[in-house]
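User: I'll paste a sequence; please echo it back and then give the predicted structure.

Assistant: Echoing your sequence first, then the prediction.
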Amino acid sequence: MPRVLIVEDDEAMAAALRDGFTFEGYDVALAKDGAAGLRMATEGAPDIVILDVMLPKKSGLDICKRLRVDGNGAPILMLTARGQEIDKVVGLKSGADDYVTKPFSFMELMARVQAVLRRAGNHPVAPDTCVFGDVTVDFKRCEAHKSGRPVDLTPLELRLLRFLVDHKGQVIARDRLLDAVWGYDSIPVTRTVDTHIAKLRKTLEDDPADPRFILTVHRVGYKFNG
C-alpha cells in the first residue's frame, strides 16, 4: 500500500484529500502545519508528499528545500493558489517534482501523483488504454473508437470515463463522481452526473437504454462493468 503524506492546514481540503486517497487505496498521513509536515516527511518515509505552499509555522517551500538539502528524495507535489506563478517556479527550483493549482479536481491530482510516482518508479499506475466491447479508448491521446471508427468525447467525458474505468466493478456514488471529476470547489448538482453518463452511453453503448458497461446502481450511483 503506497504511503502519502498530506501537509495541508485547510481542514476541509485535508479531509477531502484524505478521503480521496484512502478510497484509492493509499495509506494516508496528515500534517496540519509545516513543522509537523517536515517532521513526518523525515521520519515517516512517505512514497509521496502532497505539500501546500502556504502553511503555518513553516512554508511548503521551506519544507521542500530542507528535505532536499537533507538528501530526502521523496517525490513532492506542491499545491499552489491560482495565479501564484512565482510559487510554481520557486517550488520546482526548490526540488518539487510537480504542482497543482487550486481549485483542482481530485482526478487531476491523482493523474499528477501517478505520473510523479511513475517517474520515481515507486508505484504501478493504471494503463492509458482501455478496451471494452468494440470500444477502444486511449486516455493519454484523448482518443476513442467504436467499431474502428473515431467518436468524439469531451475532456470532461474522458475524465468521467477514466474514473469509472479505474474503479472497475466498484459502485461510485454521484457525489463521489462530482468531487473527483468536477472538483471540490465546483458547484454542479448530481443531475449533472446523470446527464454526462447519458451522453457517454449514447456514444459508447450499443443500446444506451440497456447498457452493458456503464451501469446504474439504483439510488446510489454508477458502476463500470467492462
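The mean pLDDT is 87. The first helix runs from residue 11 to 23.
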